[in-house]
Amino acid sequence: MLSAVFALSMIALYDAHNIILYVLTALSLISGVTVLLGKRIGVYATAFTLPVVIVVSVATLHYSINIVGVDPNSQTLAFNILLALYVILWFLAGLLVIDKRDLLK
Question: What is the reported pTM?
Fold first, then answer.
């Protein structure tokens, strides 16, 4: 759920017209809330959304680092750090899903 709120703030700062990011963030928020409530659909939504978000985030980070370099200016550096933090938060969400795997049965 924290990663969804974090993603909403990133979208608002950088690109307010990207519909795909809003859909991924909505799925993140729904899956975060439902996992915390202990619902089975939340575990399924997180298991579905997790690989997509991690691949998109890592690909964006890789592209950003290769195009402009690691530290060209403070704005790009902040974006790269935020994107790396977003991947870490989703990795932690994956660990939470592994912990809640008894709900998948």
Answer: 0.68
